[in-house]
Write a structure and sequence with these properties.
By secondary structure, the chain is an alpha+beta fold. The chain contains eight helices and seven strands; from the N terminus they run βαβααββαβαββααα.
Length: 222
């Protein structure tokens, strides 16, 4: 409708630069601290339909990438549920869709079971704080100019009821919120597992540095 944007923000898990690791090593407590979410792709559009978006997401997750190596954080607010319903039906159900690609979250504080998708409500400020910490620790790397521009205008505001929240001064914060959502995976167990697997794939110099530093971290030797 030419209003709010659909955003697909793509990150890959990569080791931080050794210089960054060296600066921060005294704060590290887990192998996940040595890795970051590095932005490698960005799509933003406010005129395509949910059906078209579902086709794009499907092609990315199940055709372009290896779906076994893909995790999707889906915001359920607004049209997230509609997108989730559309995905199994793309290309007239002639597809390899599977729901295992979606990251699961508790949809209520008292919930026991985790379900597909992230609901943003009273938890927004906590999500923003987690993202701020991730940016400070160089655990999220943003390179897209549109995303960076939104970050510079994403500010703290007071609601009419006297509560603090965050929003884009320019009117758009869809790109920022997608990055904030992505940062939630940094605390997921699967993120640590992926980091452990990557340790055997990345370049030898970086791998050896992480292993040696982790050994010192475990013994608190610097």
């Amino acid at each position: 409708l030419g209003q709010d944007y659909h955003v697909v923000n793509i990150f890959k898990i990569s080791p931080k630069d050794i210089q960054i690791m060296e600066m921060q090593k005294e704060k590290y407590t887990s192998i996940r601290d040595f890795f970051k979410l590095q932005q490698v792709g960005f799509f933003r559009n406010n005129i395509i339909s949910i059906k078209q978006l579902a086709e794009l997401v499907y092609l990315l997750a199940f055709e372009y990438f290896n779906d076994e190596n893909v995790k999707i954080v889906l915001e359920l607010n607004n049209h997230g549920g509609t997108l989730l319903e559309a995905l199994p039906n793309v290309f007239e159900q002639n597809n390899n869709y599977g729901s295992s690609v979606f990251v699961r979250y508790k949809h209520r504080i008292d919930a026991i079971e985790e379900k597909i998708g992230l609901k943003v409500n009273d938890n927004k400020n906590l999500l923003v704080k987690g993202f701020q910490d991730a940016m400070y620790n160089k655990s999220v790397e943003i390179t897209n100019i549109d995303n960076i521009h939104e970050l510079t205008t994403f500010v703290k505001v007071m609601t009419p009821s006297g509560h603090i929240t965050y929003k884009g001064e320019s009117g758009n914060d869809d790109a920022v919120m997608s990055a904030i959502h992505a940062a939630t995976v940094l605390e997921k167990n699967f993120f640590t597992e992926i980091c452990e697997e990557l340790l055997n794939i990345i370049d030898v110099q970086t791998s050896n540095y992480i292993k040696e530093t982790m050994n010192r971290v475990e013994h608190r030797e610097y």
